[in-house]
Amino acid sequence: VQLQASGGGLVQAGGSLRLSCAASGNIFSINRMGWYRQAPGKQRELVAYITSGGSINYQDSVKGRFTISRDNAKNTLYLQMNSLKPEDTAVYYCSARIRVTSYWGQGTLVTVSS
Fold first, then answer.
1. Which end of the chain has fewer CB atoms within 10 angstroms, the N or the C?
2. Contacts (Cβ under 8 Å, ≥6 apart) of 31
3. How far apart are CA 47 and CA 34, in angstroms?
């Protein structure tokens, strides 16, 4: 599976961004796709994921502000981020899981200024 993330950038606090992740390869075996982020000096953390059955889970800090979705026709995963805060600043990675194997995209930087 190959993943190509895009959509990061610089935005003011309170603003919005939409991240995209285009998937290719053995996409029909994907059990779950998600977004992770890693802020400077911190460990990578899960932001949200969506399973092949449509179940969705969010990290508590982004609930009500971020929305994960997918377009199966375009093989693309999205993360709509609203009401952004400076603490959302991080490199965001998309990930796909097939059984116990995780695949990662290259990351896209999101910077939220105060």
1. C
2. 51, 52, 97, 98, 99
3. 7
User: Mean pLDDT for the chain?
Assistant: 96
Q: b/e map of 65-96 (b: 16 or more CB within 10 Å)?
A: ebebebeeeeebbbbebeebeeebbbbbbbbb
CA angle 52, 62, 19 (to 5 degrees): 60
- Mean pLDDT over 67-92 rounds to 97
| Residue 51 predicted with pLDDT over 90 | yes
> Could you tell me the pLDDT band of residue 48, with boundaries at 50, 70 and 90?
very high
| Nearby residues of 83 by Cβ (< 8 Å), 6 or more positions away | 14, 16, 65
Contact between 35 and 92 under an 8 Å Cβ cutoff? The reply is yes
Tell me what pLDDT residue 27 has. 87
Residue 27's φ and ψ, nearest 5 degrees, are -70, -20
